[in-house]
Each structure stands twice: as C-alpha cells, then as structure tokens.
Write a structure and sequence with these properties.
This protein is of the alpha+beta class and 231 residues long. Helices cover 31% and strands 27% of the residues.
C-alpha cells in the first residue's frame, strides 16, 4: 500500500492482513500515517457534502518551500477587513515566513485537496522568557499582565499564523488545523479582536486575555491551557 505521495506506507499490525485496504480507510480518520517522516492524516469536513482534506505536518524548511502557494492565501486572509493590511506588509510575507519558520523548533500543518493548499497553521515552542526582537514582541511584553505573561513562555506553544481561505471556512478545517498544531500543550496566539477567527478560538475553549496595539493594529491575545491526557 502506498501513501498520498506514492511512497510506501507501513501499517501497524492491527490493520495488516488481507483486509488492510478497507481497514486503513477507517484508521486514518482517527490517527496519523507516517510517510517519509511526515505525519499525514485525513480530515472530512463538517456539515454538508463529503469533501475530505489531506493534512500534512511540516518542519520550518518544508513550510518555506511552500511560500509561493501560501502567499496568496495570506493575501486573501489579511488584505480584507478587519485586518486591511497594506500592500507592503502583504508583500513582506515571504520574509516574515522565513523569520517565523526559522524559529527553533518551528513546524506547522497544511491542508490539501487535489494538490491545492486549502489552509495552513504554523508556530514554534515559546522561549523561556518573552522576547523583545521586534515591535510585536515589545508590545506583548508591555501589555501582558504578569499572570498572563507566565502563560506566554515555555512550555507554551506560539501559534504564529492560521490561514484558511474564505471558500474553505465554516466546516471546521481551521479548528482541526489548530488542534493538530497545539495538541495537548498550552498555547497562545494573537488575532484581530473582530476577526472571525476570534470566535473560532472561543468556541474551541481559548480565553481572551488582553488587548493591545502594534503599529496602529488592534490585537487580542488568546491562551489555551494544557489539555489533560485522555480528554
């Protein structure tokens, strides 16, 4: 049996044998396939229809290789309201992606349908202390109450970007990408307080913590506590 990219799939003993072909269809709905050291899964959209997506985990280098496909998704998500990012910031996405995915331990997930990227999320393990490398970092350090600041450092995960084009929203794909990115670990992110994603985070159990501005852009920090094993 071969995976989505043509490479052999090694199945666990529980799904081997003459019925493996039918069993693996069920198995991959609830767990990962490991193919060429990549975690791969299938996500079937919620609601009407029967569309499925291939979800693939990538390290920072793998994400950088997809910059040409990710850039138009970023443009669609952030050039529109409420973000209204200027053209120069949209154009800077490749450089920003390189910086983000160059963080120690950076990784992410992409969703694909027929070879087209339909969504992406990425981030990295938070450092032991809040950084002050740029305007965003400095603004977070100044605005974060002490009790919340403690939630923004290790062992938390930083979610840098979550992007799903408008045509793919409303079926749980963004929530699934986010869940795979953070797993059972504590995590935090910042988004526009009026973004549709803010409602997604609240429905997924994230908590609004504080608001601030970076270069005139309003942002709100959300955190999520670690999820106990078995839940």
């Amino acid at each position: 049996m071969r995976g989505f990219d043509g490479h052999p799939i090694i199945l666990p003993s529980a799904v081997r044998g003459r019925h493996a072909t039918s069993q693996v269809v069920v198995w991959i709905m609830t767990t990962y396939l490991y193919c060429q050291d990549q975690a791969i899964a299938i996500y079937r959209q919620q609601g009407g229809g029967s569309m499925s997506f291939v979800l693939r985990e990538l390290d920072g280098a793998g994400l950088r290789q997809l910059v040409a496909q990710l850039h138009p998704i970023y443009r669609e998500c952030f050039a529109a309201a409420p973000w209204n990012e200027p053209a120069e910031k949209i154009a800077d996405f490749p450089a920003r992606l390189a910086r983000h995915t160059g963080q120690p331990g950076a990784y992410g997930w992409i969703a694909e349908k027929d070879g087209e990227i339909c969504g992406a999320v990425y981030g990295w393990p938070a450092p032991a202390v809040l950084p002050a490398a740029n305007a965003f970092d400095i603004a977070v350090r100044k605005a974060a109450p002490p009790d919340v600041a403690a939630r923004l450092v290790a062992p938390a995960m930083v979610v840098a970007e979550l992007m799903v084009p408008a045509a793919r929203r409303g079926r749980g794909l963004g929530r699934e990408l986010l869940a795979r990115q953070v797993g059972d670990r504590p995590a935090w992110l910042a988004t526009h307080p009026e973004a549709a994603a803010a409602r997604l985070y609240e429905r997924a159990g994230w908590q609004r913590r504080f608001s601030y501005q970076v270069e005139g852009q309003p942002l709100t920090v959300f955190t999520r506590a670690a999820v106990p094993m078995g839940r």
